[in-house]
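In this supplementary section we document a worked example of the pipeline. Step one takes a protein sequence of length 75 as its only input; no multiple sequence alignment statistics are reported here. Step two produces a three-dimensional model, which step three serialises into structure tokens for compact storage. The input and output of this example are shown verbatim.
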Amino acid sequence: MKKQWIFWWLANIIWIILFAVGSAVVWLRTVDGAGVTQTIELKLVAFIVLLSAFIIPFLFQMVWMIVNLKKGREN
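The serialised model returned by step three reads:
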């Protein structure tokens, strides 16, 4: 059981790092790949798109956590 929690935390740390790096790239860039100058509104839209891409892994992590909790109560 302990291995499952270690892997769960490791996966969470990796996802948090990826999200933080992606957010920093979106927020700190002045021009995007298409050459459009980034305004606050465009940065917020890009951040929302990034956030929506991370919703699916978040849901998988929550299901994984519930499974870990249920298996922990069985033992």
